């Protein structure tokens, strides 16, 4: 199972560089990294997915991220109730007689055609990774010319709690953000 | 504070002075010129030391910080000035030393255009700094510098770089120093131990029969000397130190065993391997300390008290991890601990220690002058009370073995990065804090030639430092590896030295050459009498080896012991002896 980390970072120049640099120099593998504005001005929210299986190594990644000065909070949600989604745009080169067929596939996957050109269509889907994979599989017989996937974004289910400014000693009710206790994380 | 209209350049000095800094090590150049121009107004508060190379500035700031526990400050221009600082920042990073490096940058409108002497130093220094800043608005300048000092010294200390474009230094604003605490949501507060951890801690100690404390650099950084000794005394736990932990506990204390690791004492490594409880305090299980991880202290439970959570469970799996400041964590523990004796364990270690004594070169007479003997004499000649700064190589390990340190911050050495060239500049830097204590720089012939350019700085600043060059004509530590692992093919390790006495004379430094053991102390006495820099070259046996040694990647208990009595010390010992 993939490691999924929801990370809050200060929205400052160079932050992405610092995170990328950390993953590179410590030889961690980023599967995907998605970043955008959060609900709070000046704070960006990231979903980072790694393919690290080893729990101890996952701990290294977690605490090294936490150590970055621009990183406000990190939550490892790999084993928690989350909604996860990926977004994809697919361009298909298409003959006039294929449109119906494509349409069928698109509909059956809850995707949409968002642009129809003379010889091309662009399809959009927002789904879980598995469903996106399935959509791509089914469209492969057609002439796919471009794919743009965002990588996974994740959000924890349930109530949102305030972010403690103190990364390690978060309040007990900040359940979303109580950082992994070193003790429990590794055991 | 009343409002004053100040330039960015002036704000730099204001902020540095408010941090309590009275000495800055630096080198001017185009993009930092406004700051240097403004320095003239701050001479009363801040002394600037003109170095000979920016690497020297960073090591000086580092040496100052290690000796004092305060933040050291280095300054340089953009481009080559800034890149010259990389080695010094990396050295400070690996050893958790708080320094702030201030660099000039090309004017902000031309950033990104490959302007003259433009280098993306904030990008380049990410891996070698704890954090860094590029200031693009003069309104952020004061707060950024304040934050930089805070980040450098908080938690696990480290180097911080602040890059300030020339135009920002030239602009001016009404200066108001940001008061109040710095709120940095990204900094981690040490947790301290909770009830269950305290309980488990005392149980683990009570249950142990062969405990040992591993005392690291964190003991010095946290100021936890007394706490460690309290813990050790209470439960009769012997203490081994890491290289950077030397001085954290007094060497003469009956429970202090000495250094662990690759060139650690055999009885310390043996104790670690046979222990049933490691109490790791402010150390990070570096590979030079553990040897082969798979066989490291195989039968022990492990407690790790550490301020940096990312160090916990990094190399060694621990049974009781405690994230916190060492001093306060042990404070929490002491009241719940019960007294305990580990007599048979301590006796066992004593036995190992006594057995090794016969092998120790210190107790042997040799034909040649040996590095170990020189270090021991320097220890005697300074009554073990000097501030010693060492460089990297065999002489560094000999110092760690034969100079016994009683107080924290009396040995400064580059441990994590092993940066040759560290000692002379670090010693110069430290001398600006340590004004009463005798200062000895123990340096190899190879290492000295890396940064001997700073002799100029030492003379210009009339530093009261004693330089002891251990000249073995080789990059000795590398030669040692070639002898052991590369069938004695000494490829590019013999190294020529200049005539050091003449070299010193060119700088107006009085210098001596010593070739025999009997001359060590008398020559020391000569240089001890004078003020200002002095230099002694000790011409020592060329083929000496440092033992004990755990070959890289070997089990910690697979030590090559010191050879039994040989007239030329550890040199030329038989291959059979090596293989044992
Ligand atoms: C900057 C740097 N380059 C290379 C090395 C690798 N190295 C480690 S010890 C050593 C030899 C040091 O020679 P010297 O200063 O003469 O000390 P000795 O071992 O002879 O006492 C070398 C080259 C290093 N540690 N640092
Ligand atoms: Mg040498």
Structural account:
Chain A has 187 residues and is α+β, with helices and mostly antiparallel strands. Chain A has five helices and nine strands, in the order E-H-E-E-H-E-E-H-E-E-H-E-E-H. Chain A folds into two domains: 3-81 and 157-177, ACT domain (Alpha-Beta Plaits), CATH 3.30.70.260; 84-149, Alpha-Beta Plaits, CATH 3.30.70.1150. Chain A has helices at residues 15-25, 55-67, 99-108, 129-139, 182-186, and strands at 3-10, 30-37, 43-50, 71-76, 82-93, 112-116, 120-127, 143-149, 153-156. In chain A, strands 5, 6, 7, 8 and 9 form a five-stranded antiparallel β-sheet that branches. In chain A, strand 6 (112-116) and strand 7 (120-127) form a beta hairpin. With 580 residues, chain B is α/β, with parallel strands linked by helices. Chain B has 24 helices and 20 strands. Chain B starts with a strand and ends with a helix. The A-B interface holds A 10, 13-14, 17-18, 21, 25, 56, 59-60, 63-64, 66-73, 163, 165-169, 182-183, 186 and B 122-123, 126-127, 130-131, 134, 151, 183-191, 197, 308-310, 312-314, 317, 321-323. Bound molecules: thiamine diphosphate and magnesium ion.
| Percent range for β-strand residues of chain B | 15-25%
**How is the CATH topology of the largest domain in chain B named?**
Rossmann fold
In which order are the strands of the major sheet of chain B placed? 3-2-4-5-7-6
Strand content of chain A: 35-45%
- In DSSP terms (H or I, runs of 4 or more residues), the helix count of chain A works out at 5
Rg of chain A: 19 Å
| Count of folded domains of chain B | 3
- Sheet with most strands of chain A: 5 strands, antiparallel
Rg of chain B (C-alpha, Å):
25 Å
CATH topology of the largest domain in chain A: Alpha-Beta Plaits
Shape-level CATH architecture of the largest domain in chain A: 2-Layer Sandwich
Report the top-level CATH class of the largest domain in chain B. Answer: Alpha Beta
Bound ligands, each once:
thiamine diphosphate, magnesium ion
């Amino acid at each position: 199972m993939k490691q999924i980390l929801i990370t809050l970072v200060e929205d400052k120049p160079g932050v992405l560089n610092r995170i990328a640099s950390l993953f590179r120099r410590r030889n961690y593998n980023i599967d995907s990294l998605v970043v955008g504005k959060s609900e709070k001005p000046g704070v960006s929210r990231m979903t980072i997915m790694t393919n690290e299986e080893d729990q101890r190594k996952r701990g290294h990644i977690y605490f090294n991220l936490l150590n970055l000065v621009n990183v406000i909070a990190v939550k490892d949600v790999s084993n928690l109730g989350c909604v996860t989604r990926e977004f994809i745009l697919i361009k298909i080169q298409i003959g006039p007689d294929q449109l119906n067929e494509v349409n069928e596939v698109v509909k059956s996957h809850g995707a949409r055609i968002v642009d129809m050109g003379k010889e091309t269509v662009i399809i959009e889907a927002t789904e879980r990774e598995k469903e996106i994979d399935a959509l791509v599989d089914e469209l492969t017989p057609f002439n796919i010319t471009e794919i743009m996937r965002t990588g996974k974004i994740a959000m924890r289910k349930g109530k949102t709690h305030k972010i403690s400014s103190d990364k390690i000693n978060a309040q007990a009710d900040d359940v979303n953000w109580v950082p992994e206790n070193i003790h429990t994380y590794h055991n | 504070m009343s409002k004053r209209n100040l330039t960015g350049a002036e704000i730099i000095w204001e902020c540095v002075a408010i941090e309590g800094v009275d000495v800055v090590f630096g080198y001017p150049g185009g993009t930092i010129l406004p700051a240097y121009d403004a320095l003239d107004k701050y001479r009363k508060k801040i002394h600037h030391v003109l170095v000979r190379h920016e690497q020297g500035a960073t090591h000086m700031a580092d040496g100052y910080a290690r000796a004092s526990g305060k933040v050291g400050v280095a300054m340089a221009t953009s481009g080559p000035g800034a890149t010259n600082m990389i080695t010094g920042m990396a050295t400070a990073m690996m050893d958790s030393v708080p320094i702030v490096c201030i660099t000039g940058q090309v004017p902000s409108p031309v950033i990104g255009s490959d302007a003259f002497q433009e280098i993306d130093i904030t990008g380049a220094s990410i891996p070698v700094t704890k954090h860094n800043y590029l200031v693009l608005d003069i309104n952020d300048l004061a707060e950024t510098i304040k934050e930089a000092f805070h980040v450098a010294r908080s938690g696990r200390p480290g180097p911080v770089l602040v890059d300030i474009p020339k135009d920002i230094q030239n602009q001016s604003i009404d200066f108001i120093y940001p008061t109040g605490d710095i709120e940095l949501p990204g900094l981690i507060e040490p947790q301290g131990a909770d009830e269950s951890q305290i309980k488990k801690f005392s149980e683990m100690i009570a249950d142990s029969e062969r405990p040992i404390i591993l005392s690291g650099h964190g003991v010095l950084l946290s100021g936890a000397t007394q706490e460690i000794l309290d813990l050790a005394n209470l439960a009769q736990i012997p203490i081994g130190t890491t290289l950077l932990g030397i001085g954290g506990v007094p060497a003469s204390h009956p429970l202090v065993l000495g250094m662990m690791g690759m060139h650690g004492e055999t009885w310390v490594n043996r104790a670690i391997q046979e222990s049933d409880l490691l109490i790791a305090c402010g150390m990070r299980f570096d590979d030079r300390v553990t040897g082969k991880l798979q066989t490291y202290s195989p039968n022990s439970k492990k407690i790790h008290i550490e301020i940096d959570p990312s160090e916990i469970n990094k190399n060694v799996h621990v049974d009781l991890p405690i994230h916190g400041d060492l001093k306060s964590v042990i404070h929490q523990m002491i009241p719940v601990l019960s007294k305990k004796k580990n007599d048979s364990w301590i006796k066992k270690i004593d036995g190992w220690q006594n057995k090794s004594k016969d092998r120790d070169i210190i107790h042997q007479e040799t034909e040649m002058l040996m590095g170990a003997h020189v270090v021991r004499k320097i220890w005697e000649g300074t009554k073990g009370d000097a501030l010693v700064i060492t460089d990297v190589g065999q002489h560094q390990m000999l110092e760690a073995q034969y100079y016994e340190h009683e107080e924290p911050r009396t040995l400064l050495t580059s441990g994590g990065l092993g940066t040759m060239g560290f000692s002379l500049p670090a010693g110069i830097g430290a001398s600006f804090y340590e004004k009463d204590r005798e200062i000895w720089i123990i340096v190899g012939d190879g290492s000295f030639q890396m940064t001997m350019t700073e002799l100029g700085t030492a003379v210009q600043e009339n530093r009261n430092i004693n330089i002891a060059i251990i000249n073995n004509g080789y990059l000795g530590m590398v030669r040692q590896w070639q002898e052991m692992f590369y069938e004695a093919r000494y490829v590019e390790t013999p190294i020529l030295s200049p005539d050091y006495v003449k070299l010193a004379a060119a700088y107006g430094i009085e210098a001596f050459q010593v070739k025999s053991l009997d001359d060590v102390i008398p020559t020391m006495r000569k240089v001890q009498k004078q003020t200002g820099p002095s230099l002694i070259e000790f011409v020592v046996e060329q083929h000496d080896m440092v033992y004990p040694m755990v070959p890289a990647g070997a089990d910690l208990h697979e030590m090559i012991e010191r050879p039994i009595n040989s007239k030329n010390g550890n040199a030329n010992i038989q291959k059979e002896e090596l293989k044992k």
